[in-house]
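lol ok so funny story. i was supposed to be doing the assay writeup but got distracted and ended up predicting the structure for this chain instead. priorities right. anyway since i did it might as well share w the group, maybe its usefull for someone
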Amino acid sequence: MSVTTAPARPAVAAASPAVEPARDGWELHEGDLITPDLSVVRLLGGGSAYEAYLAFDEVTYGPVVVKVLRPGQVEDPVSLRGLRREVEALGTVNHPVVVRGLRHQLDGPRPHVVLEQVDGPRLSTLVRRYGPLPEQQYLPLAIEVAGALHYLRRLGWTHLDIKPANVIMGAPARLIDLSVARPIEAAASLRSVIGTDAYLAPEQADPEGPVSPGPASDVWGLAATVFEAVAGYRPFESGDTEARDVRERWPQLVQAPRALPEGVPGEVVEVLAAGLEKDPARRPLPAEFAEALEPALARQPRARFAGFKVR
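and the output, tada:
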């Protein structure tokens, strides 16, 4: 959820045509008010329970992202509980690589949360449009997101939905969408599938199995995300979302990951293979994931400005 528009005052011009609203949507357009302080710039998208708008905020006097429960979800206890959980996560987490929550309203006609607007494209968009990323892009990305996961783990939280669509390619990279994040203890008690199919760790795809979701699940999601950035394709074949057999829906439960392209640095190959281990106990910790990539990053050419080498 990101654009590069930086409005100077209330009349904000939309950067591109609005996304068509979903059937259960507010159908708000440029200039419409979400609340008296939040005027719509354009619809960004959303999920089954909410819509996300780029808006101008009279409180912070700048662009923000507003996640609003859809009209049909305003009185739904499950959706309201999910919004409260996201607000709790945003209020707990404070890290430079994780999107910040600014304020929220959990009651009234349009329950919503106001988030900072982060400049930059989603990683998923870059890969879809341009293919694999160069080392100079994916190495810092991997290390920065691993740092955020280290922080979450130390804080006692887990994100549970690490994927390219939830990474904004800025400086630093930014991790967004805490809508399914939970304390580690709450994640361990999950008995239903939470997350996005192609990036689910095996224990997330089979939460009733012997191993519970937790911080190691985020490492798996990070490895799957970085794999896609490196290769331009996902580590596992797409599963059949309608299949009743869990092995057909989630091939990561039984298949080995695809091979990476030739020429990928050895450190990257090794840490991604370790991060995609089916046994969570065999995966590296987030800090170990980052440390394993440091030598490859150190070999990257130094930046130069105006003919001077940065020391």
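The chain has a mean pLDDT of 90. The chain is about 30% helix and 15% strand.
back to the writeup now i swear
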